[in-house]
Fold this sequence. Notes:
41% of the residues lie in helices and 21% in strands. It is α+β, with helices and mostly antiparallel strands. The strands form three sheets. The protein has a three-stranded antiparallel β-sheet. Strands 1-2 form a two-stranded antiparallel ribbon. The radius of gyration is 22 Å and the shape is globular.
Amino acid sequence: MNMRVVFAALIALVSPILSHAALAEVKIQSVTSKGGITAWLVEDHEIPFTALELRFKGGASLDAPGKRGAINLMTATLEEGSGDLDSRAFAKAAESLAAQFRFDAGDDSVAISAQMLTENRDEAVALLRRALIEPSFPQAAVDRVRGRCARSCKRTQRTRTRLPRRSLASWPLAIIPMAAPSMAPKTA
């Protein structure tokens, strides 16, 4: 028997089984906190994993004039220390909780992503809260991250995909924050 026919038959038999899980309905609940913040909640108790995605209006478009890149630098340094934890201690604490955090500044929002094992959720959320409420922004870390951002910005400016945006930013339209690049660490 031809191997292609066997493979096609196997795919035909397995596909409906695999696609059934993909077609399962996702139930999204709208929940509101005591403070009036509305959020969407999706639960699946078969997976011992919690994912949290936060978005705040603002982002790089709110950088002060002459300080382009400040919001990007701030989000890049949030994991560099918190309270009495330096960057290594923070990373070790997150790793011990099987937690991962990501902070990102877009043009019109700041995003925070957190993933953790459900059994460690309370401790991981406390560590995330600490990073947001008690960031230490040590000067050595800020300088290191600023240098990394500057190198990244230079690489980005050299790529062909950024040429149209750079050209647009050089026009009088550049006074609009959304038209300028979000990474300009020398001015941040």
